[in-house]
Amino acid sequence: MNNPALRRGREEFRSAFWSARGLFVVAAVMSFFVNLLMLTGPLFMLQVYDRVLASGSLPTLQALILLVAGLFIVMALLDFLRGRILAHAGARFQALLDGRVFEGTMRVALIPEERARPAMALRDLESIQQFLSGPAPYAFFDAPWTPIYIAVIFALHPIMGWFAVGAAILLFIVALLNQITTLKPETESRKATALAEKYAESVRREAETVRALGMIGTTTAQWGMKRGEALEAQMLHSGRAGFFQAMSKSLRLFLQSAILAVGAWLAVKTEISPGAMIAGSILMGRALAPIDQAIGQWRMFIRARQASTSLHQFFATVPVSEPKTTLPDPSARLTVSGLAVAPPGSRQPFVRGVSFDVQPGEAVGVIGPSASGKSTLARALVGIWPVMAGEVRLDGATLDQWSEADLGKLIGYLPQDVGLFNGSIVRNIARLREDIDERDIVLAAERAGAHEMIVKLPDGYDTEIGEGGAQLSGGQRQRIGLARALFGDPPLLVFDEPNANLDADGEQSLIHAIRQAKERGRAVIVMAHRPSAIAICDRLLVMRDGSPVAFGPRDEILKQTTRNSGAVQQSARPIIGSVG
To answer: Which own/partner contact pairs does 266-271 have at CB distance under 8 Å and 24+ positions apart?
Structure first.
């Protein structure tokens, strides 16, 4: 509790949980009446044995059976309503946190060591919802009635009462042993299953490489080992849990029979009536039911408890975004000062000491060898990775002064690996937004030089591209990604290796798009290796080993940093000239 972030995460969880407290209160009230009506059976037995059989009065029996039928109908209705109310409570809890957890998964996915947690967080939330909506809470609502039922048994006879107390203690010990012996196997089972799922997902992502390199047998064998460890842990846990569940059920049935024998002994000694003997057995069954139910639902309870702890940590890792003051639309003026950047969760900067500016209508190219920090810098400029030191300002305001939604509208980002979503081309260009003018989508595609390519597809803009754009070639994905970056005409454009998969026509479209963006007064930053992209740039920033080496006018920087600067410029002229 000394960790402020963890404390906030727990408070956020509790706030959502207690938002449904009204429903829990109603369920508790209904549980009160349900358990009260559970006394109907024992009282009916007492009346039948002590009054009807003794007097032989059939009208009394008829009246009793009608009364009992009515009471059991009411009990069934209340029990049904209690289940529905708990289902609504679980649904409300999940609905309150669904958006929060899903949004958090997007942020956590940016942290390398936390990438396995997003899917787990969604499963954790669902586990708690299933726990709240299932029969497990009944044990909590019914448990307070155990001493009440035992007190009624004491009223029938103290010996039967003490027997019931001993039976409850015995079952409680079984429940305690169940928790102690199954907790570790349950935890190990979850960890082993998560590792196996993570490995399977990584192999599925690289299915083409695995198939092409003949790695199917090796990966299958490795997955089989991980899955075998998970199954072994699951079997150990299931075996222990099943043993205690079977033991508690058999023990409860035996104890009910045993108290019947105790009641029969007392009835033979004429210390109680035969009706009290039967009633005592039924009452003890009801007294022990919550304990037996808790043992049966123990796995769900443990899973929900572990899920709640995991969600506390998840909320602490990704706190709620504070609302931001809406700023006026910025000009395309970017200033970077003393920037140091590290991947989320890391303290070792990949980029350090970067300072430069981009003016409206200007394009700046960032060049350097592989692993020089170009992609890291791009992620920092669009707000994906946090800034360790220094600052990035757009029109004088740091990026964190805008909300994520507002900042996204101000930036056009084309990552090195273009990620498209399952759906139509029109939805991908529109960034999955619904409230858009389709003319803006076509305009973005035209500016990206992708319109003609798109209309040649079977369904044009409505063509379904599959998961990750699987139905498209690499060049087509890159051009649609460029159209998506240009959608809405954002003031800041950041392109990371935008021509990596483009042919000559595609490169011409890219240069044309950059030139048009400059004419509209947009700021453009291009991370590139190939000369065609940097030849349209006005200034260049040279990176090496995460640090800036030079920054200035394009031709001057090329002369300083490359031996074949003339050849570089010459190789770009055919493409530049064709779109000029």
So the answer is: 266/157, 266/159, 266/160, 271/157
Residues of the chain with CATH 1.20.1560.10: 143-296
Question: Longest Cα pair distance anywhere in the chain, in angstroms?
Answer: 119
Rounded to a whole number of angstroms, the distance between the first and last alpha carbons of the chain is 64
Reduce the secondary structure of 395-420 to three states and give it as a string.
CCEEHHHCCHHHHHHHEEEECCCCCC
DSSP per position, 206-221: THHHHHHTT-HHHHHH
Residues of each domain in the chain carrying CATH 3.40.50.300: 334-416+491-578
Of 180, 176, 131, the C-alpha closest to 303 is: 131
Beta pairing partners, 495: 414, 526
**Interatomic CA distance for residues 472 and 470, integer angstroms:** 5
- CATH 1.20.1560.10 is the classification of domain 143-296: yes
Fold of 334-416+491-578: Rossmann fold (3.40.50)
DSSP run (H or E) holding 553 = strand 547-553
Place of tokens 């009515």: 70
Mean pLDDT of successive 10-residue segments in the chain (580 residues)? 70 81 87 85 78 78 87 90 88 85 76 59 84 82 85 89 89 80 77 78 73 77 81 79 78 83 87 82 82 75 83 79 80 91 82 92 90 88 87 89 85 86 87 84 90 89 81 86 91 88 83 92 87 82 90 86 53 45
Distances (CA, A) of 375 to 367, 398, 456, 498: 10, 20, 33, 12
Cα 555 from Cα 365, distance rounded (Å): 12
Q: How far apart are CA 393 and CA 254, in angstroms?
A: 75
How far apart are alpha carbons 533 and 546 in whole angstroms? 21
